Amino acid sequence: MSNNLQGWLKVIYVTFAFCSALFLGALKGLVVGPVAGLILIIGNVGIILWLFPAHVGWTFYTVVKTNRFDTPLKVAIMFALPGLFGIWLGLSIAGSVLVGLGYGFFTPWVSTFEAFRHDNESKKFFHCLVDGTWGTIKGSYTIVTDFADICYHSFPNYLKELRESPQSNELKTLRLIHVPGCIIVGLMGLVVNIPLFTVIALVKSPYMLFKGWFRLTNDLISREGPFLETACIPIAGLTILLWPIVVVGSIVVAIVSSIFIGLYGSAIVYQERSFHRGVAYVFAMVAEFDEYTNDWLYLREGTILPKPHYRKKPTYHSSELSVGETRAGDRNFSPVPMEAPAMLVPSLVHSRSVREAIQEVKMVQIWGNMMRSCEMRGRELLDANVITPHDLYESLKPKNGNEGVIISVGLPCYTFLQTILYSIKAGSAGLLLFDNFEVNYLNRPKDILLDWFFHPIMVLKEQINVIKLGEGEVKYLERVVLFGNNTQRMQAWENGSLVPEDALRAAQIQGISRRMIGMVRSVSKFPTYRRTFRHIVKALISYSEEGMNASLSNSNRSVGSMENV
Q: What tens digit of pLDDT does each residue of 120-147 get?
């Protein structure tokens, strides 16, 4: 009898908590949402409009200056750029408005439910009231800052690398006979893919809606997945309530992605040098989209639509790319291009429990661990006078010189190298990060972004392990990755390095350094990287100032003691 009473009390408590959080979260969303949303919308739209002329000028200048395209291809790209810029302007402004409204209203709401994770009842009530208020407003500023970094730093850096890329044998050419085919297939992709993707998404949206509700309700009754722990039941209840919004969002993503998938037909004509294969791509994408949604929604297997082949050669997954297959002169790493999934449909399989999800390493854990490791290595180099406070200040300048590159590229690359070497010495099957935090094939995040880098990093680690670098060669590799082309600073650092006399050995070490620098440059273009790394640099500046103040106080005490004597 007492067990039944406790069960009913728990049900009443959960119901009351859910209703209270639902009302309080909606109230906070109405109060905080307009402020945070306006900050995000005005900030992002202002950045888009302010930098739009510069983006147009930078892009056209890059197309003219780069030596990777021949003249006909440059002309074709210039004719296509106005349309692409129009699409960018429309989608970016619309996306900023939608993200601003969604973030401003739903973040305080979700934060209210997240407060139920706290064990202490008083803390739980306090966090229900406070979480998602000022933090949401600060988060909107952070999003605007990261978006500004992408538009003002990452995009120009990519264009600069494209302009300054060394001349290679892989000059991309375009025959004028294929220009009409590229235009026709691109327009055909828009005319065919947009309406058919929309129809398929709308027809299957009721299945997604009701199957999602059925799966979540089944988990609620059987206490599986997100409903396993009582503290998470209100959050899972909110998921059931907001599931229609997830379905609508999936439809919107499918429609928007169909634009780019349709336009990619022009690229297929160029890559395959065939108009017929471009047309086959347009219809094959519709069949693949239908098959993709069938698999996610557990409908019929495969598709009844025709699915013609449009590739002469099989397309490899990015995880199969070996770093050793890249050219030695490549400055940045880019995976094999793949056709992106047409629709982001949440999985309807049984959800994992919260405890099972915690066992998997999260991307934010890897990111934070890398930054802490970078700060620790920076302190070591400062103590050894290998890098100076002047280097740190230079890296914070908008247009930094060689000293700035030493910090912005060399320091994370040096940290990356130390992580790989430490993992090899420890016999780790993956990467052994700071504080013996291991990431391997079993616990790594199942993230597409991480897939682009994890396997190539493992290949690079294996290559370093196979060539068996000596102690002097390791020190030489450290100098190369830290100082890059700054030979003066390399010679000034006497770390016991040994330049290999064998030309092949030296070329292997130089190739490893170029791949590592390329990976770091690719990571540096990520949205949150620049803001987070600037915090690391400022922390290192504070550390160097504390050391200078301590040294100055010690010298003053020494002078005072001598005067007393």
A: 666 677 777 888 889 999 999 999 999 9
